[in-house]
Description:
By secondary structure, this protein is mainly beta. Helices cover 2% and strands 42% of the residues.
Amino acid sequence: MRFLLTINRFCFLVLFLASSVGWSQSVDRELTSSAADSFINGGNLFEITVGDVAVTDLGANPAINQGFLQNANTIYIYSGGSWSPMDPVGNATDKDFVIVEDGSTTLTGNLIAQDLTIDPGATLDFGSNDVSISERLINNGTVLGGDARLIFTGSTGEFTGNNIEVSNFENNGSGTLSLELDLSVYDLVTLNSGTVDNNSGKLIFKSGPVKTAMLNQVSISNAMTGSVQVERYYQDTRAFRFISSPVTTTSSINSNWQEGVNNTSLDYSQNQNPNPGFGTHISGNFTGVNGFDATQNGNPSLFGFDNIGQAWTVVSNTNSQTLSAGNPYRLFIRGDRSINLNFNASTPTETRVRAEGELAFGNFVESNLNTGAGAFNFVGNPYQAAVDMNTVLGASTNLNTNSFYVWDPNLQSGVGAYVTVALPAGTNTSASTANQYLQPSQGAFVTTLNAGAASIVFNESDKAVGQNTSVYNTSNGIHSIVGQIFKNNAGVLGQYPEDSFGIDFHETYSNDINAMDAIKPFNVRENIYVNNSGVNLSLERRELPADNEEIHVDHSGYSVSEYTYRVYVTGLVAHDVFLRDDLSNQLVALSQGLNEYQFSVDPNDASGAIDRFSFVFQDTTLSNPTIDSGALEIALYPNPINGDVLNIDLGNLDNSSNQYDLSFRVSTILGQQIMSDALNVSNGQASVTGLGTLSTGTYLFEIYDGKDRLYTDKIIIE
């Protein structure tokens, strides 16, 4: 058995040993150092195979390490390619010591230890396992932990040595864990108890193209002391972003987002880029004073928003202003600091903008909001975690809970545009990744509901860790029109629309402007929006259309001459839907699903008129149907579908003689047809197979008799 002993000064060891026992170090000596002497490193390791150890105090302080130790801590050592006395995985406890002396080894399962030491030159790969430490982690070598969860479980402890990267970090300790190294986390930090002290090292929240590390809900006030570092990844797109810091810094904006440097010369050979792949340029004048990077035009790239005055404001300096958690900005990001600012055509690069400061914990309230009904308020996510805007707005005071607005840099050919996110579903009409989850380091606009004081409230319970936006969304109304405008470059359309709008119809909605509708925020270039009696809307929720009703859609900000209109029609089977083009006085019939209409504009004539387009509805005149759809009672089951088959109950309808031309269609919400086939009905029953091949999501299921649609409903594939 192997023992680890710490012997205070003026103590000696009395060993009661069998005659066959030996040891590797003489211990019958007086210890005179002022600190405790630990026999663990430098060959000071006792290898005792039998017997017990007694510690006797000779000095003035009685009972210092005095007593009788039996079955002391076990030491597991990896050396020469193997573990001794055995593999600690599944054997070691939180009272034992694990040492990797040399070579490289990978954990085969979860590891528990009191102390874990990796000696110089040695490598320990955590794999995808849990590593639980109750006192010390001493990394003098290399730790590979990118897929692992590191857990602290003791009363007090420390992580020291070389820096470590892990997927998850969790503090379940009861006292203070001192970080004396940099601990980088790629996925999730959970602080259940105790305190993490960052004053000697720091916790780093990493960010990449797929996900950003987040901080789980925190229920204790002293969960962390000292500063952490947070990163936010930005793709290689030259565009504005709505950015917000999740930390409050004592250092300047320049020290953080600009990596502590700025260009005072226009000569690119003197460009300051100390950490390639990190930071960005922030411009504001010609010469680089006040912390800005010098540019030829001196245009500012960092703005705040005055919620009271309803106007963008230029940030006056970056060398003295600091960052506060939840304070949002509009920042033009060109890439990292390798970009040549003398050329707008410089190829953008991806970058990670980072800041170091204290994280925001607990509830967060911002009351500096405009009191006018419908006013826009710029707010920032104060947490290092995604938040569900449904619960944020639900707990806030006098704010519209039905929508909010973000900026998507992918729209308008990379310039960026506003996206209206409809709540509670978190959908939008712009093919954007934006949804109901506001991301860490992201800002957004919310609107005041009624005249009067308003405030936004963020609670720890609003956090939605792991919700990195990755899903494309559109309007999800069963009766809806979604319009998108694309630049038409010789018949080739861009990946993203320049702008979009949505109209959802329901018998419970109102045609009057109310909180269910979303006011249109205007983009730099193209804008399309619903005009309801002079009120501009990016999303309107209104009653089901009446015969000959017309809804006006305005356009502005054209930047080219050729465009393609994409209009998605869902439901509305009781009406024929038309796009009216007043330039040609033409009614263009729209079918279910996707419709495209190409048009040209010239700002010097009527083709560029703001009110050129509208939608017209006429009651559908059907050919004499052979089936009375109103008399059918159709049921679909199971729905949601987690298998391959959808059963259809059509009541007493019998088509055994094939007197009806029945068929079905399965389409995406956008109207793209996925499946279609004849529907064989017997005794009012039918089934559709092959649904197990569809991706998880919501689809439209339709039943036709010839060209007449009998039935439309949503199905959900799990």
